[in-house]
Amino acid sequence: MNVQEFALPDLGEGLVEAEIVRWLVAVGDAVHVDQPVVEVETAKAAIEVPVPYAGVVTALYGDAGSTVKVGSALISVASADAQETPRLSEPGVTTSPNLVGAGTTKRARRQRLAAPSGQQPAVSSTVPVISPVVRKLAREHGVDLRSIGSGPEGLVLRKDVVAAIKGTEGTRIPLKGVRGVMAERLSRSRREIPEATVWVDVDATGLLLARQEINAADPARPVGLLALLARFCVLGLRRFPALNSTVDNDEIVLSEAVHLGFAAQTPRGLVVPVVKDAHMLSTRDLSANLASLTGLARDGKITPAQLTGGTFTVNNYGVFGVDGSATIINHPEAAIVGMGRIIDKPWVVDGQLAVRKCTQLTLAFDHRVCDGEVAGGFLRYIADCVEHPTALLGDL
Hints:
The chain is α+β, with helices and mostly antiparallel strands and 396 residues long. The chain folds into three domains: 2-125, CATH 2.40.50.100; 127-174, Irregular (Dihydrolipoamide Transferase), CATH 4.10.320.10; 177-394, Chloramphenicol Acetyltransferase (2-Layer Sandwich). It has eight helices and 19 strands. The strands form five sheets. Strands 9, 12, 15, 16, 17, 18 and 19 form a seven-stranded mixed beta sheet that branches. Strands 1-8-6-3 form a four-stranded antiparallel beta sheet, with no helix packed on it. Strands 5-4-2-7 form a four-stranded antiparallel beta sheet, with no helix packed on it. Helix 6 (225-239) crosses helix 7 and helix 6 crosses helix 8 (372-387). It starts with a strand and ends in a 9-residue tail after the last helix. Its EC number is 2.3.1.-. Residues 3-78 form the Lipoyl-binding domain. Its cofactor is (R)-lipoate.
């Protein structure tokens, strides 16, 4: 038997550790090459890690909620010959391209897993918990499992965790992983960026009509309001490039490409996926990219590379039913545009009072990269696009 130890690989983006969210296999399971065996959460995203070996799992290092360093042991797999393949009838065992044949008995498998020390590593010790659901409940509320077990041999029961939660003052949610990264990014924005905000109320009736016509022309490739706002911003940044920049020490770095970030709410908190080279995309392609990245973010499958490198951010906070917001710039970018909800309001049209579909646009900008004239000019351009979308034809 050849036992191979697989360590947590380099996850890129300078990440040095990850938290185990859940194991996708158990000791005794058969695995094949590139099969996902564990879900981990880094400071950037949740990732399923595949194993590079085929065989039988002999050890799992770490429990859900524990932190593993890059390069540290994650899982051990023992390769088996044709006579030692786990039977398909055994629970939790799957077939593998490198494991052929059948007929291994449960007794034989137990003998393999019980090999003397020096041939396979021991399974890491964990606090005994009655179910994974109880362990997850404890992790979400920051409950230390090491001293609350009331069951046989210290087994932690659900009632133990519930009692521990009730005995604490409020619910504790650790600021780590994706939530922790966003917290640090937003805090750094407030500390380092001299931020200013301008806003304007606009008549969005023409915007809604334009979107209706666009989607009627090709229902299979719909365009959302966020995509239209993003398109307006891309065109606006061509006229006001100072807002598509970052500040590096005592220099303003202008970006030739528009890598468009957008705020997305997920079960793990707020994230900002980035559509790379948004200036090269059509409005429909831009909308498709926004939808795809939003789905990946909500499913916890977005990669670290898809959450970095933005040069400008848009935010449709109107989906939360609010009119306006003092948005925070996504450090190290220089500006962010937000749009509130679209509602009926009284509006003067050609000297007559009418009911129109209105919204509010907000621009928060780094005052180091531009002054109010540039910021106001950019926001006014976006507002004109919202009120008169067909005027964009001259810039396309």
